[in-house]
Design brief:
The complex is a heterodimer. By secondary structure, chain A is mainly beta. Chain A contains no helices and 11 strands. In chain A, strands 2, 4, 5, 9, 10 and 11 form a 6-stranded mixed beta sheet that branches. Chain A has a 5-stranded antiparallel beta sheet with strand order 1-3-8-7-6, with no helix packed on it. The N and C termini of chain A lie far apart (37 Å). In chain B, a hairpin with a 2-residue loop joins β7 and β8. Chain B is an all-beta fold. Chain B starts with a strand and ends with a strand. The chains are: A mainly beta, B mainly beta. At the A-B interface, β4, β5, β9 and β10 of A face β5 and β10 of B.
């Protein structure tokens, strides 16, 4: 089933605007990671999160373990932000990360 | 420079042939993973290795086996490949057994005809 559900599945953003991606979890998890897969297919780690919030440049991510969700906020979207964003939740206790199906983001000029 | 290296980048095999995918990392990470990525499904865990000769099945291990004889190398083997094993395969590593940041290789696109 959908242990890690991402929304939206696809998104088109005007350059310079803001948006939020979301992950909902139906498994017990204590850590979450966010990745960006670029158009060439490479996966880059954006955030490693325990419950709380982290910020890096135009990106900010929050993990709320009590309500079982995580968000990734993109501020002032740029063309190079285009790609597929994945969240992954560690299935508590076995160090195995379960991935969502991804959000395909396209930033347009 | 921390790196996870996968070979080959592209591979075409016929059904029934054996396939060997190689992965190396230069970070002395204990834990290594093999995932496959199919359209619309995200990444699915095939096997996890906690260290040399300490491997554990992931969510979709059927049809695959792994080998880890050195900490820096982790191999994925398909004995008698099937057409439904056509996919993009990613190797990843993390520092130790505790849940840590995953570092991914560039992937191997395998086509089984």
């Amino acid at each position: 089933g959908d242990q890690v559900k991402q929304s939206p599945s696809a998104l088109s953003l005007q350059e310079g605007t803001n948006s939020a991606l979301r992950c909902n979890f139906s498994i017990a998890t204590t850590t979450v990671q966010w990745f960006l897969q670029n158009p060439r297919g490479s996966l880059m780690n954006l955030f490693y999160l325990v419950p709380g919030t982290k910020e890096n440049g135009r990106l900010k991510s929050t993990f709320n373990s009590k309500e079982s969700y995580s968000t990734l906020h993109i501020r002032d979207a740029q063309l190079e932000d285009s790609g597929t964003y994945f969240c992954a939740a560690e299935h508590t206790g076995n160090y195995k990360y379960v991935f969502g199906a991804g959000t395909r983001l396209k930033v347009i000029a | 420079d921390m790196k996870v290296t996968q070979m080959p980048r592209y591979l075409i095999k016929r059904m029934g042939e054996n396939v060997l995918l190689e992965c190396g990392q230069d970070m002395s990470h204990e834990t290594m993973y093999w995932y496959r990525q199919d359209p619309g499904l995200g990444l699915q865990l095939i096997y996890i290795s906690y260290d040399v000769d300490s491997n554990s099945e992931g969510d979709i291990p059927k049809g695959y086996r792994v080998s880890r004889k050195k900490r820096e190398h982790f191999s994925l083997i398909l004995d008698s490949a099937k057409t439904n094993q056509t996919s993009v395969y990613f190797c990843a590593s993390s520092l130790d057994r505790a849940a840590e940041t995953l570092y991914f290789g560039s992937g191997t696109r395998l086509t089984v005809l």
